Amino acid sequence: MGKHIVWVACLLFVVIGIFWYMSTQDPDRRQSLEPAVPKASKKRVEIPRDKVIDFGKLKSEGSEELNALMEERKAPYGIDKSIDMVVKSDESIRVGDRTVRMEKILQDLKLQRGEILEGDVDTGTVGEDGNDYGVRVVQPGDNIWNIHFQLLKDYYNHKGIEVSPLADEPDPRGRSSGVGKILKFSENMVHIYNMRDKRLETNLDQIYPLSKVVIYNMTHIFALLDRIDYEAVHRIEFDGDTLWLPAEQ
């Protein structure tokens, strides 16, 4: 009986010693010995609502904030009717039930030109590039020439210059006017995006209502227009690739 009591006492002593030893160890070390719990996979971040410019909400009731934002962005360029939306590269555009990120469009443009894409490897994003992009949603009866011409008239009207509706017509000998040369050159600075198929269009003549948008790099387009003296527009030359502006007097 006495030996049994001694054995139990010894066992109890050993258990107490083990608990005391464990309590004196570094908690960080104890934690490192615990089985690792796999981290939850990173969820894809959804596009915030305030990053989507919805064409359907423009001019509609209850969208005062969006309309005010568009007016604010258009103001520095002096445009109104010729462009529907002015968006940033880290935003998205929505037409009907189709939404496309501007980043996607810009990446497609770079790939088309054979440029190297730069961006965040983890997210696949390029971020905000500082440029403004004008978006015109194609409507029934639109054609690319008239869309360009309307933008040009909008721009000059803001400067107090009235552009004749016939300013883009060739002269009696069939030679392009100065305005016509600007419009022809601007075709190299505009892109058409198919919202339905989510791809760039290379045929500028085939544009369909409410399924395609015309996209301008506003920073580049207006940097060009700001350099043109309208009084000397008839002296502009265009060789099919390069627009030659008259030298400043």
Can you offer a commentary on this structure?
This protein has 249 residues and is of the alpha+beta class. It has one domain. The chain is built from seven helices and ten strands. Strands 2-5-8-6-7 form a five-stranded antiparallel beta sheet. The chain has a three-stranded mixed beta sheet with strand order 1-3-4. The protein has a two-stranded antiparallel ribbon with strand order 9-10. Helix 5 packs across helix 6. The chain is globular. The termini are far apart. Mean pLDDT is 76; it is low at 26-47 and 120-124.
Quick structural overview:
With 249 residues, the protein is of the alpha+beta class. The chain has one domain (50-117, 124-244).
Instruction: Assign a percent range to the helix content.
Output: 25-40%
Count of runs of 4 or more consecutive helical residues: 7
Largest sheet strand order: 2-5-8-6-7
- Spans of at least 5 consecutive residues with low confidence: 26-47, 120-124
SSE series: HHEHEEEHEHHEEEHEE
Number of strands: 10
Radius of gyration: 32 Å
Average pLDDT, to the nearest integer?
76
Number of domains: 1
- The secondary structure category is alpha+beta
Strand content: 5-15%
Q: Which labels suit this protein?
A:
alpha+beta; 7 helices
Topology:
Layout: H1 2-23, H2 27-33, E1 52-54, H3 64-74, E2 85-87, E3 92-95, E4 98-101, H4 102-113, E5 133-137, H5 144-158, H6 178-186, E6 190-194, E7 199-201, E8 212-217, H7 218-225, E9 237-238, E10 243-244
Parallel strand pairs: 1-3
Antiparallel strand pairs: 2-5, 3-4, 5-8, 6-7, 6-8, 9-10
Helix pairs in contact: 5-6
